[in-house]
């Protein structure tokens, strides 16, 4: 029995294992027999065998060519599929990159919305501009009214201060008058006492 190495070599020589090497050997043997044939019948028989072997070789060759062409088309198809896969992978990478950008943008938008919502809640706790202006206007009027009241109070205080000054001056003058009257009374009493004393003498 042939070994595995012999079988492997025969398969390599035989191509796809269709028996081409054997057919060529038979063709060579038939050609040698045809050359060495002694009778016409034997030569014709060998000639027919050679034609049959040639037909088989041509058929095997055609089949091999068809398989070769099919393999080429398959390779072209595989290359096209491979390129399509590469293009699909590149497109998928681009789409993934674009999706990442969209995710980042969505995160920024979400963060901004959260900040806007927080600011809106803070703003809602404060009155609006129209209400604030009304309050400021009311406070302005109240301040103006208080200013008038202050001026009136200051005028009254000034009047009372002047009145009090006049009162003090009057009191001082009255006190001087009383003191003068008292001195005058004391002088008169002293004079009367002296006169009474002189009259007694």
UniProtKB/TrEMBL annotation:
<dbReference type="GO" id="GO:0006397">
    <property type="term" value="P:mRNA processing"/>
</dbReference>
<comment type="function">
    <text>Component of the THO subcomplex of the TREX complex which is thought to couple mRNA transcription, processing and nuclear export, and which specifically associates with spliced mRNA and not with unspliced pre-mRNA. Required for efficient export of polyadenylated RNA. Plays a key structural role in the oligomerization of the THO-DDX39B complex.</text>
</comment>
<keyword id="KW-0175">Coiled coil</keyword>
<feature type="region of interest" description="Disordered">
    <location>
        <begin position="180"/>
        <end position="201"/>
    </location>
</feature>
<comment type="similarity">
    <text>Belongs to the THOC7 family.</text>
</comment>
<keyword id="KW-0539">Nucleus</keyword>
<dbReference type="GO" id="GO:0006406">
    <property type="term" value="P:mRNA export from nucleus"/>
</dbReference>
<feature type="coiled-coil region">
    <location>
        <begin position="75"/>
        <end position="102"/>
    </location>
</feature>
<dbReference type="GO" id="GO:0000445">
    <property type="term" value="C:THO complex part of transcription export complex"/>
</dbReference>
<dbReference type="InterPro" id="IPR008501">
    <property type="entry name" value="THOC7/Mft1"/>
</dbReference>
<dbReference type="Pfam" id="PF05615">
    <property type="entry name" value="THOC7"/>
</dbReference>
<protein>
    <submittedName>
        <fullName>THOC7 protein</fullName>
    </submittedName>
</protein>
